[in-house]
From TrEMBL:
Gene3D superfamilies: P-loop containing nucleotide triphosphate hydrolases. Residues 2-231 form the ABC transporter domain. GO terms for molecular function: ATP binding; ATP hydrolysis activity. It comes from the Bacteria. Transmembrane segments: none annotated. SMART domains: AAA. Belongs to the ABC transporter superfamily. This is ABC transporter ATP-binding protein.
Length: 245
């Protein structure tokens, strides 16, 4: 469970205060898949970066119930895969474990399992440049899961991919999510992606960035081709589009 209360962020640009995120409250349940959608500049990335500890909030509080662990563990997937080009797929996934001092045999075995989960068995030795964009992003997802975070933050992870690859990765992400039971916060610009993947969709609006509406997605799981034919899926997309206008 993540409890966000009054989290806000102001930046100073040339001495002028810019509110990237006005005080925001949100609860995310353990194992829930929540998407955040909104026009450019509404504070989606800022909220995610604050949750990841990459940015400091100007105020408010965040509590992450991290299954009794002393340190909060968060995995982050960016729009660009940001892999180390001189390391193989396996070494990239293993990298956070190596830096955390996990013994080699255990790190290797975990990285192999994660590459399998991401559908990359057989590509362990491949360098990033030998992989397609979709495969590189799957390596990034495997790497984000390597230190077993309770919370997976994804900032437009499939935004740079073609639509066919994106559809495939959406299904693969749902399969990974079903198997790992992670809590996922997923930023996207696509209403279809948000409706297809999520338990709830958070719509944000800009100037200043704030949560406008939260939608419950009552489509049955597992999702698949049938979901895309469901009239309530189309109704939800229409509602989201109207809200975003
Ligand atoms: N480091 C920074 N310094 C100054 N202003 C910033 C900084 N980071 C973000 N902002 C401002 O905060 C606001 C929210 O930015 P943010 O990147 O969170 O939006 P976003 O919804 O993720 O946008 P996009 O969809 O384009 O990625 C914007 O007005 C942006 O210009």
């Amino acid at each position: 469970m993540i409890t966000i209360r009054g989290v806000h962020k102001d930046f100073s640009i040339d001495g002028a205060k810019v509110t990237a995120l006005s005080p925001t409250d949100l609860d995310v349940n353990r194992g829930e898949f929540v998407s955040i959608i909104g026009p450019s500049g509404c504070g989606k990335s800022t909220l995610l970066r604050i949750l990841a500890g990459l940015e400091t909030a100007s105020g408010g509080s965040i509590e992450v119930d991290d299954e009794g662990r002393a340190r909060q563990r968060v995995g982050f997937v960016f729009q660009e895969p940001v892999l180390l080009p001189w390391l193989s797929a396996l070494e990239n996934v293993r990298f956070p474990l190596d830096t955390a001092g996990v013994v080699r045999a255990e790190a290797d075995s975990r990285a192999k399992d994660l590459l399998k989960l991401a559908g990359l068995t057989g590509f362990e030795a491949a360098l990033p440049r030998a992989l397609s964009g979709g495969m590189r992003q799957r390596v990034s997802i495997a790497r984000a899961l390597s230190y077993d975070p309770s919370l997976l933050l994804m900032d437009e992870p499939f935004g740079a991919l073609d639509l066919i690859t994106r559809d495939r990765l959406n299904d693969e992400l749902l399969s990974i999510w079903a198997q790992t039971k992670k809590t996922v916060l997923f930023v996207t610009h696509s209403v279809e992606e948000a409706a297809y993947l999520s338990d709830r969709v958070v719509v944000m609006s800009p100037r200043p960035g704030r949560i406008k509406t939260v939608y419950n997605v009552n489509l049955p799981r597992p999702r698949g081709e049938g979901t895309k034919l469901d009239p309530s899926f189309h109704q939800l997309m229409a509602d989201l589009r109207r809200d975003l206008r």
